[in-house]
Amino acid sequence: MRSINILPPEVIAKIAAGEVIERPASVVKELLENSLDAGADRISVALEKSGKRLIRVADNGVGMSKEDLSLCIKRHATSKIYTLKDLFCVKTLGFRGEALPSIASVSKVKITSKPHDHLFGHKLVVEAGKDLYLEETGAPSGTTVEVRDLFFNVPARRKFLKSDRSELGYVMDVFIKIALAHLNVHFSLEHNNKLLLNLPATEDPISRFCLVFGEGLSESMKAGKKIGKDIFVAAYISDKTRRKSDRLFFYVNSRNIKDRLLLKTVLDACSERFVKGEYPQGMVFLNLNPKMVDVNVHPTKQEVRFQNESEVYGCVFECIKELFSFSRGKPSLKIQIQKKKEKDKDTVLKRDIASEKNAVSEEEKQYLISEFKLKKPHIIGQLRKTYIICEDEQGLVLIDQHAAHERILYEKLKNGFNSGEFSSVSQKLLEPYRIELSSEDTRNLNSKIDLLLNMGIEISHFGGNTFLITSFPPILKNINWDSFFSEILEENTEKIDSIEHLLKTMACHGAIKAGDLLSLEEMDALLKELYETELPYFCPHGRPVIKTISFQELEKMFKR
Ligand SMILES: Nc1ncnc2c1ncn2[C@@H]1O[C@H](COP(=O)(O)OP(=O)(O)O)[C@@H](O)[C@H]1O
Ligand SMILES: [Mg+2]
Q1: pLDDT the model gives residue 91
Q2: pLDDT tens digits, residue range 119-177?
Q3: Domain spans, the chain
Q4: 419 Cα to the center of ligand 2, angstroms
Q5: Whether this model's pTM surpasses 0.70
Q6: Disulfide: which of 146, 218, 241, 535 matches 278 by Cβ 3.0-4.6 Å?
Q7: What pLDDT does residue 183 have?
Q8: What is Dmax (Cα atoms) for the chain?
Q9: Helix (H, G, I), strand (E, B) or coil at 200
């Protein structure tokens, strides 16, 4: 073995650079963050050959003096934290003092900078980490960093870069992620002298999102806010879904982060609204005291740790849940009544003074509820024993009978479970229903018997692999027990334990099916119940229940 030897500084620098600087996109990210930390409100990025040949980021921020310029490419030189204490409440995007030295060690860098109150600027030229010169120059206020020939001295790295097209894609990704969170800044992105994105400053997060991803989204975007104990959450989400979660962005104090649990929280909160495998798009901003987040988890600063996780995730869950408790773009009944109440507060208050005790009487409440209730359409008939065909003032209404019944059962089951009333309404069977399972399923079911009992389903182990169902809530009278058990037992246990999942499965197996012939009375009863539910437009799995073809669409269809 060779003897131990301390690595020369250039080698150390190159190793460290590998951690933060992986590709042109990483350079763009670091330079953009520096410009933002410098308080710029105009930042332009220009690339040549997807950034492989040139990356230029120009800002109108505070700029650097000659002294700062000579220091900024030294390792761990930063103006952003001074002491260890500062590390625990980072307010800037950068803080490690690593980016510029890392970039400079693997490329040819020119930094031109001038603070606002200086007459002249300075230019620093560095190649492969070595200062070539630092000289006075005329320059606009702010800083321009030019990075040429990235990895020119690290061929192994250069070889690992992907095609120009892919690398440009990565750059666009980081650029967009940052631009979405800094609305007060005018950003532009140019590639080979072609302007790709021009995002003027705005106050509206939705308009920036739509400027980037398409104006067609603006109608579908909803905003929600929630204030928790030490946290403020603002979400802007479109229900136009995608097959991937690639357009769902999360920010903690304006820093874009990756957090699987946050993504899961959002998806859970709208699981009733979307089919599995469909992802909404939009942005979720979390604002919390910097002391409550640790951003120093990873060199790329993309992961964070929350001090009070349950508060954070809980608040996000509530925010998204409320945002989606809108049906057909209208606020939920509860919110509307509350709004109406607020509007009427004045009049009510006056009446209150005139010695009425209740702010809103029972009668007024009924009026409000009926005013906002969705109107049950008129039934025309059943199509293919699957859809209920109706009409209302807007046009032709199609209702999926299975999905409708699923929604009704799910809400009843959920309410029954939450209020604990299942045990009292369960119906004893005259003759217990027998089910036979495999040994593995037997073990599985044995561990779930108590949970099912809470849902009003009483099962006893008869011996061997045989079980007897002795009672269950009457609304499940149509359930096919064999298929219900085969579904909940084949799933992984983690899922079975989720009560919501069990309730959804019960609703699905207990609901009438496509192919069931319904009489007019049965359809009428079904729709009455459907239009009483909280979210009639979607089944518990997020599939649509009601679809309307408007008269305009019909007229267009027939060229009237
Ligand atoms: N665009 C810029 N405008 C003004 N100052 C800058 C700019 N870019 C870098 N600097 C200065 O250089 C220092 C080092 O930058 P960097 O290596 O990215 O480390 P960090 O951002 O972690 O402090 C910063 O702390 C800042 O003082
Ligand atoms: Mg930085």
Answers
A1: 65
A2: 999 999 999 999 999 999 999 999 999 999 999 999 989 999 999 999 999 999 999 99
A3: 9-197, 205-325, 328-372, 374-560
A4: 54
A5: no
A6: 241
A7: 95
A8: 97
A9: coil
Q: Is the CB of 90 under 6 A from ligand 1?
A: no
| Ligand 1 pocket check for 99: Cβ under 6 Å | yes
Tell which phi-psi region holds residue 143, choosing left (phi > 0), alpha (psi between -120 and 50) or beta. beta
Q: Using CA atoms, how far apart are residues 323 and 274, in angstroms rounded to an integer?
A: 14
Count of CB atoms within 10 A of residue 362's CB? 8
Query: Which atom of ligand 1 is nearest to 97's Cα?
Result: 19
54: CA distance to ligand 1 center in Å?
20
Instruction: Give CA–CA dist 133/136, Å, rounded.
Output: 10
Q: DSSP labels for 142-185?
A: EEEEEEESTTTT-HHHHHH---HHHHHHHHHHHHHHHHTT-TTS
Q: Does the C-beta of 62 come closer than 6 Å to ligand 1?
A: yes
Q: Which CATH architecture group holds 374-560?
A: 2-Layer Sandwich (3.30)
Which one, of 169, 196, 144, 172, lies nearest residue 35 by Cα? 144
pLDDT digits (tens, 9 = 90+) for 177-208: 999 999 999 999 999 999 999 999 999 999 99
CATH 3.30.230.10 fits 205-325, yes or no: yes
Q: Is 70 close to ligand 1, i.e. is its CB under 6 Å away?
A: no
> Is 543 a pocket residue for ligand 1 (Cβ < 6 Å)?
no
| Listed residue (80, 81, 24, 90) closest to 304, CA to CA | 90
Q: Is 96 in the pocket of ligand 1 (CB under 6 A)?
A: yes
